Amino acid sequence: MIQVRMLLMGVGNVGRRFLHVLNLKRESLRHRIGLELQVVGVADRSGVAVCAEGLDIQRILALKASGQGVSADPEWGRPGVSALEMVQETDADLLLEASPARMQDGQPGLACIEAALSKEMHVVTANKVPLVLAFPRLLALAQAHGVRLCFDATVAGGLPAINLGQRDLAAVEIVRLEGILNLTTNYILTRMADDGLSYEQALAEAQASGHAEADPSLDVEGWDAANKLVILAHSVLGYPATLHEVELEGITGITPAELAAGAADGKRLKLLATAEREGDRYRLSVRPTWLDAKHPMAQLGATEFGVVYYTDVCGVISASIVEETPLPTAAAMLRDVVSIYATP
Amino acid sequence: MIQVRMLLMGVGNVGRRFLHVLNLKRESLRHRIGLELQVVGVADRSGVAVCAEGLDIQRILALKASGQGVSADPEWGRPGVSALEMVQETDADLLLEASPARMQDGQPGLACIEAALSKEMHVVTANKVPLVLAFPRLLALAQAHGVRLCFDATVAGGLPAINLGQRDLAAVEIVRLEGILNLTTNYILTRMADDGLSYEQALAEAQASGHAEADPSLDVEGWDAANKLVILAHSVLGYPATLHEVELEGITGITPAELAAGAADGKRLKLLATAEREGDRYRLSVRPTWLDAKHPMAQLGATEFGVVYYTDVCGVISASIVEETPLPTAAAMLRDVVSIYATP
What we know:
The first copy, chain A, has 344 residues and is α/β, with parallel strands linked by helices. Chain A has twelve helices and 13 strands.
């Protein structure tokens, strides 16, 4: 039995669901894979809750469900203590990072990831920004300390898009990559195309159903997809891309009339992220793109992510996921944890 | 640099392409992954060719291209020596198994796989039958000798369908699995539906273009897909299925009129392999199945394989591959080799 003591940073949409999935799967992981997973610390905006013997996950979930922060726990709560202090001061084997990060500097996640790797803790993250800002440095740090940095949950939700590219296509050349990497825009475009909604109506509906943020600009302007594309470039294509070089066009100017005209020709408009091989580099873009009905991403529904790898000797490989809530993204974090400890 | 001495059994459609892919990728594997892959023996019906320092792959390919067996090589050829003798008598680290096997007893592949595992050689196989007949025994043998038995190339060609299920979904429950696992039948049904060909016309065309065997019965009656489903059941679902329990219906009775009528309702007929969870077991079937246009496998083209995993907490994950020739299947064997030696 391998015992793993984990710290969780961020108990929001993804972090909360991670605790839920962990709670569901704990017994079967112990039984089937020989993994004993304990959460010895959690951090949110309120502070932290820490218990060396393992927190009661249901108690933490109940606190959050009642609208309180984790530091409100009467026994384990430590109000005002930061996630970074928790990482620095708590004995643990692995950091789970599911916090929101500022686009400018990737904090507070970036500092916590660095601190964890430096302490020889593995890191499993669902947070894109630190990777986009510092991928080579973080990878080198992990290697220098002999630990793993896993981030399958950062791109395309619960779809193992990174694993597929990084592990299954390690021996082949990827000449082109395409992805539908942002759910908000896919939801909006699909509802506009299928149900004739205006952009504003579709956005309002997406916000009401939890498929768009109150401020949707990072999604609808393409930044979220561009971030994910940069992570795919570094990790799968071995190409050290920066966010600046992604040619970017959002979906705010699209009209239902355009979509209807395309549909009459059997085409679908998708916000497509693309990396195209050009000599020694890749050319990256995120833009609304008309796809033929037969294109593997054309039929993706409102709540689907997808990715297509065009290879030299392994054909064209497509994968997609239907993801109604971030539950699969949380499950992808658990997948990363299992992949660190389970040997083939 | 890790040196790997490999034996290849079977130099037909897949084996020959494996040598081609290896030849293409050898330098980049050495450079990028630190793997030095050598073929020290090959076997076909004529006998074997063996060279402890590594065979010249292009010389072997030239022999085959000229219609000769590998044992005709003037320097390395040993006519009449069997693959099993080669495995038993040659020092090597890994056996690549790409030979045709008899449905009844899995030979000659099965004996060679057993001999290799018993000698502590890893095995990478594209040959379904030995796995279908003896999966638990072969897996136990590999584990007892501390080596790997890899078979990603046996199911859905170059699509990492097994890896996806076995590694990426290890922590979740698969409640249902669907696959389009046989290319011959998918080719025939697609040509009948899209171009109005009769079954006989579509079959003849598939045979002429190399997408069907001279004797297509194992494909069109569903046996090939059933074999692959049994391998998925053992390896991904952890369910020890036998071929007998697969409910089986082939495509020989389908008419273009039926397909046209379905198409008028927006539906597509596919030979679908299905595993459906029922309590502690799975119910397995292979049969022609009408799919709604929105079903992830409905739009698969004539030369595509696909698989869909319906999970408890990781959404619905679909993957497919466009595979015009068995080149991606050969690339999947190389993927397995790399996965044995490359650490994450």
